[in-house]
Specification:
The chain is an alpha/beta fold. It has helices at residues 24-28, 36-49, 71-86, 104-112, 127-132, 139-149, 169-181, 199-206, 214-230, 261-278, 293-297, 302-309, and strands at 2-9, 55-62, 92-97, 115-123, 155-162, 186-191, 194-195, 234-238, 252-254, 283-288, 313-318, 328-329. The protein folds into two domains: 2-259, Alpha-Beta Barrel (TIM Barrel); 276-329, no CATH class. The relative contact order is 0.10. The structure holds iron/sulfur cluster.
Length: 331
């Protein structure tokens, strides 16, 4: 069974806040507010290209703060998507929003339109970082929203960012620990990028904000991924998806962007595992599951190059018996 989502972007519209890193128009690559009619068209067009069997499909309202949009527009968009849920053509609806735009009334509305997944933009559980990022909510707001969402039959996703102003690795790790305690079904990890026409871009220009380096962002995100996975929380994404806007030729000004950021993190996890089991030796043979071989080698053979640079000779063999994500020392 494969999972697909049909993204319908709801840009900055309706959001009264101005997070320093956000210019939703650039991040979603779409500036217009969709209508019910447009949502219907987007879903129909995607369905034509998706398989009819062995699939789970959700319409996904992303890109802004869905439940902060005026109620009539929320209902118009949800009603359009709900028709496809009722006809069985899609399996559910997911959306992302802010923690301070969740309450029982809102959740009851979402449930009545067949919403199956709610994602909250948490970003940090450190109030100082939230303040510096201009988020306009606190960590307590996140905890309150999670308590409300958990009363309803929906999946809960929490999104966190790294490298925000006033942030550091220790605060990100503390954020991940607090997110783990909230027991979401899944998380996303986004390193902060500097996007044109944002306050962060001004701060970067004035020298008051320094973005993470790619190496450091990958190493931190890999560590966070491991923490979540050890607690049975699925990491569905690390790094922003590439769009025309979010690319070195688009609105991206600076920051740890890589089109395969998630892959770099997966490779880092394998690199760390292999390095840990090397102890003092300078040669090693590791077996990995065939589905993990490219992660073990690393993006652009990055892991092998790093071992070579340290004078370490590592050989990899493929073995179906090795569990996914694991390595077995063979020498
Ligand atoms: S709450 Fe979301 S949509 Fe609003 S400014 Fe912040 S990141 Fe952008």
């Amino acid at each position: 069974m494969r999972y697909y989502n049909i993204p319908i972007f709801v840009p900055h519209y309706g959001c009264p806040f101005d997070c320093v890193f956000c210019n939703q128009k650039h991040i979603t690559g779409e500036g217009e507010v969709p209508s019910g009619e447009r949502a219907d068209k987007i879903i129909r067009e995607h369905l034509e290209t998706l398989p009819k069997t062995d699939r789970i499909i959700e319409a996904a309202f992303f890109g802004g703060s869905f439940t902060a949009v005026e109620t009539s527009l929320q209902e118009e968009l949800l009603a359009a998507a709900y028709e496809f849920v009722k006809s069985g053509e899609i399996d559910g609806i997911r959306l992302s929003t802010r923690p301070d735009f969740i309450n029982d009334e809102i959740m009851q509305r979402l449930i009545s339109y067949g919403v199956t997944t709610v994602e909250l933009g948490v970003q940090s559980m450190d109030d100082g970082v939230l303040f510096a990022a201009g988020r306009g909510h606190t960590a307590t707001d996140v905890e309150t929203a999670v308590r409300v969402i958990k009363k309803y039959p929906v999946k809960l996703g929490l999104q966190m960012m790294t490298g925000l102003p006033s942030d550091n690795d220790e605060k990100s790790i503390a954020t991940a620990e607090k997110i783990i305690a909230l027991k979401p079904d899944f998380v996303r990890i986004y390193p902060t990028l500097v996007i044109r026409d944002t306050r962060l871009c001004e701060m970067y220009g004035q020298g008051t904000y320094r973005p993470q380096e790619l190496e450091g962002a990958v190493s931190l995100a890999a560590r966070l991924m491991e923490m979540f996975r050890k607690n049975n929380i699925t990491v569905i994404r690390a790094g922003l998806a590439a769009t025309e806007e979010i690319s070195p030729n688009g609105a991206l000004v600076a920051g740890p962007y890589h089109s395969a950021f998630g892959e770099l993190c997966e490779g880092e996890l394998f690199y760390n595992k292999m390095l840990d089991s090397l102890s003092e030796g300078k040669t090693a043979v590791f077996a990995v599951n065939p589905r993990d071989i490219s992660k073990a080698i690393g993006n652009g053979a990055r892991n092998m190059t790093r071992f070579k640079e340290q004078g370490i000779s590592v050989s990899l063999i493929q073995d179906e018996a090795v569990p996914l994500g694991e390595i077995v020392r063979k020498d």
